[in-house]
Amino acid sequence: MRQALEVTLRGCEELLPQPEWVGKLQRAQRTGQPLRIKLGLDPTAPDIHLGHTVVLNKMRQLQDLGHQVIFLIGDFTSMIGDPSGRNATRPPLTAEQIKVNAETYYRQASLVLDPARTEIRYNSEWSDPLGARGMIELASRYTVARMMERDDFTKRFKAGTPISVHEFLYPLMQGYDSVALKSDLELGGTDQKFNLLMGRHLQQEYGQEPQCILTMPLLVGLDGVDKMSKSKGNYIGISEPANAMFAKLLSISDDLMWTYFTLLSFRSEAEIAALKAEVQAGRNPKDAKVMLAKEITTRFHGAAAADAAEQDFQNRSKGGIPDEIPEVTLSGAPLGIGALLKQANLVASSSEGLRMVEQGGVRIDGAVVSDKGLKIEAGTFVVQVGKRKFAKVTLG
């Protein structure tokens, strides 16, 4: 039981209420009945980055303790749009966008979770049948005053920024998911606390034992400042090529590395503590960073690809990148690879750039570019053409 609590608390921001969770763990141990642990994700975008996997890793840890994890795809709630942390109404997605994104989400999440032991659910199963009568009955279970305690709603109301009535339905519907699934624990990022607590409230309203909630911190991105985000360009996508993933992980600061170990690694806390002690005693921190990069790259690409990525990085290290390389700021993302190379003054023309791609002579952050149709998203990266031409490109 002590181990189960330690696993639960590892890296978490809050576990509420902890005594109730301890009681649930004790009951599960006594009866042999696994606890039901829920994670809901709205498929608002098709790609998952390492920041998204922080809660997935926690799910996997609890799954390995023998509990039942439920990967809930919010196909219904996506059509409302989560207002969490937003200062404006978010446009809802179409059913077609949701379907495509949901399929991609689960395929990528399965690289972290054990698919054979994961229950997949869609909240349209119980949300669609509610109908108008059921929705009105559900809305009667919560007050407008309580809803306005939510920080983002309060700020928008005071600023005179519009709040649509349908946005009040989002936390209600997310909370109702916990009723439908009879969940014992719900996970989410720190920005989801209000919605998670709504689940507890509604379960009590419907005569159920309330779930506990566990929030995980938002992973800081490669810049060491902001949370990992595609819009900030400081992210590592889990479907990125192995070489790019490995190189990006090695680019994080020595201090940030330990946070990544805690939130992303499957190594035990004792192993991580021992490794940290070795580094403090004089071991090169790069050794630890390589171990982290290999573990994460192996998880998403396999051991052979991780070994190859490490070898590729070492080869590039021997060749070296000049201490001073031109810095170029461009706009127009997503930008075709040929146009980017020309505008960065690395080739004379777009067509020459495409020829270099075809010949395997173009690298972005150390990863060979092989797709002539590649469009580069916003971000900052080192672009190399041939052996001697480099540029640090910031694309907006």
Automatic annotation (TrEMBL):
- Which principal EC class is assigned to this enzyme? ligase
Q: Where is this motif: 'HIGH' region?
A: 43-52
Report domain RNA-binding S4 positions.
340-380
Could you state a single Gene Ontology molecular function term? Answer: tyrosine-tRNA ligase activity
- One Pfam match, by short name? S4
Q: What does this protein do?
A: Catalyzes the attachment of tyrosine to tRNA(Tyr) in a two-step reaction: tyrosine is first activated by ATP to form Tyr-AMP and then transferred to the acceptor end of tRNA(Tyr).
Protein's recorded name: Tyrosine--tRNA ligase
Question: What's the source species for this entry?
Answer: Sphaerotilus natans subsp. natans DSM 6575
Gene responsible for this protein: tyrS
